[in-house]
Amino acid sequence: MFFSIQTIALVASTGLLAAQGASAISVEERSTSLCNQPNYGASGYPWKSNSTPGSFCSKNKPSNNRYWKQMPFSDSYDKVKCSGSSRGRYNVCNGGNKKTNLPKKCNPPHKFPWGYKSPTVSSSSAAPAKSSAAASSAAAASPSASGAASSAVASPAASSAAASSAAASPAASSDAAASSAAASSDAATPASAAPSASASAVVDPLSYPVCETTYQVTYQNYTRVAANGVWMGLTMGAAAQDASYMTYTLSTSVDDCLAACDQIEGCVFVNTYYDVNEEENYLPKHTDGVLTCAMFSTCVSTDQNDNWGGQDDPNTIVNSNGYCKSSACGAPA
User: Fold this and answer.
1) Residue 50 pLDDT
2) Which of 70, 94, 113, 222 is 20 to 30 A from 188 via CA?
3) What is the pLDDT of residues 285-315, one digit of tens each?
4) Nearest to 35 by CA among 83, 79, 95, 90
5) Where is the signal peptide, in residue numbers (predicted)?
6) Is residue 305 within 8 Å of 240, Cβ to Cβ?
């Protein structure tokens, strides 16, 4: 069988075009990867009402409406950097991001030797009636986050005080005895092991940290009194605002948020929370049960948790938790 010179040239050119097409697709994937976009695709800051997240980092999106369709899934963020010959330049390609020091003035929760978890400094308080139903549904929709918040239980000092009160009043009613027993049971601390307030105060949180993978929990369900905005004067959930902000994504679990931070060069801190806005719950970041995962390049102290919502729209921050990649939790050096 014989082929003309024109036929051979046509076949060769077709193959060349196919190869160029495949190369172009590869270049296109590299150029559109989230790692090559400002703030990894996020627009604006998470504490601004008109901001949009860069991606969704869990497996299944909770909705198929037009807003969710516009949001890409995570593409592992810095995987394009790690696929090239210069991968050795990026720490995220070689075992993960660097550990960092815990932020000052944070007083992270910690575990006592007998398993009791210390309460956080800032306890949860009732949100305004307008958002209480949404807050409850958001907490119920995320077992991971609500489970983390549930560790802020009665302090050991309170349980020991209840025990001493019961001992001092042997004639107390059976109801009082039952409530004292319930408090002791809730704390999961044997009466013989219950420490005094002074003993619990000297426990080093670095020796008994509350860890989520390689991240130390620096605060749970953080709240503070709003200094301005719609909720001024009320105790509200508060999220971080800081110059070290990198990007934010959405997820349905804390584990997915932390895994996303692991895939972003320089990310060492994640603030997770529910951004509740009943008037705009059709938007992805306000969807019930969807966590905002704000990423930072430094571990941020609670001094920077001054986003209590209501500054430029009637949103509320629910179940704000902080996670710092720390050597106390086995983070890589």
Assistant:
1) 86
2) 222
3) 999 999 999 999 999 999 888 888 876 778 8
4) 79
5) 1-24
6) yes
